[in-house]
Amino acid sequence: MRSEETAATLDPVDIRLGARLAELRAQHGWSLGELAERSGVSRSTLSRAERAEISPTASLLNRLCGVYGRTMSQLLSEVEAEPALLVRAAEQPVWEDRASGFVRRSVSPPHTGLRGELVEGRLRPGADLAYDRPPVPGLEQHIWVLEGALDVTAQDTEHHLDAGDCLRLRVWGPTRFRCPGPDGVRYVLAVVLP
C-alpha cells in the first residue's frame, strides 16, 4: 500500500494510463501471465505499470500497443480528455520516458475519423530508443528534423538526418532512434495509419 506522500507524487497521466492498461487486458479476458506471454514483458512489470507503481517506458508501451493493435498515440489519447479540433500548445499532452531521455508532445492527437497525427519528439544527446516492432504493421511515418541530428535505423538501414531533413517510410520491423549529439534533437513525427 502506498503512503500518502508517495501517492501525492504520482503522475496523474501514469495513474490513468495504468488504469487503461488494466482495462484493455480485462476487455481481452487475459490474465497477467497471458499478457506477459503475448508481449514478452514480465508479469511483475505489467502489474506495476497497471498499478502506476512505475512510469512505463516507450519500449514497454510499444510492446503493449502491438499486442492491443493500436499506436502509442491512440493509447495515450485514451487517457486524456476528449480530443478537440483545435489543440492549443498549452493543451498538447506531453509524456516523458525519463529512463531514455525521450520527451513526446502530442501536437495533433489521434481523432475519430482521422488516420494521421503529429508528434514532436525530443531526445537528449546520446539518447537511444529501440522499438522491436511497430505498434501497427505497415505504419506510415514521416520524420522531419527541426533542430540537431537524428540517426534512424529501419529495415536494417541507418539514416542520418540533420536539421531540415525528412525520412519517409512504412514501418514493418524494428526501428531505432538515436541522438548522436553533441546537442539534443527536436523532430516532428507524422504518423498515418495504414
Give a nutshell description of this structure.
The chain has helices spanning 4-9, 12-28, 32-39, 43-50, 58-68, 72-77; strands at 94-97, 102-108, 116-123, 128-131, 139-147, 149-154, 157-162, 166-171, 175-178, 185-192.
Work out the helicity level: 25-40%
Number of distinct beta strands: 10
- The rough form would be described as globular
- Poorly predicted sequence stretches spanning 5 or more consecutive residues: 1-8
Largest sheet: 6 strands, antiparallel
Helix count, per DSSP? 6
CA radius of gyration is 17 Å
Instruction: Describe the strand arrangement of the main beta sheet, using strand numbers.
Output: 1-2-3-10-5-8
**Structural class category:** alpha+beta
Strand proportion: 25-35%
Give the distance, in angstroms, between the N- and C-terminal Cα atoms. 43 Å
Mean pLDDT: 88
Topology as a string of helices (H) and strands (E): HHHHHHEEEEEEEEEE
Describe this structure in words.
This protein has about 190 residues and is α+β, with helices and mostly antiparallel strands. It has 6 helices and 10 strands, in the order H-H-H-H-H-H-E-E-E-E-E-E-E-E-E-E. The strands form 2 sheets. The chain has a 6-stranded antiparallel beta sheet with strand order 1-2-3-10-5-8, with no helix packed on it. A 4-stranded antiparallel beta sheet has the order 4-9-6-7. The longest helix has 17 residues, at about 10-30. It is globular, with a radius of gyration of 17 Å. Residues about 1-10 have low confidence and may be disordered.
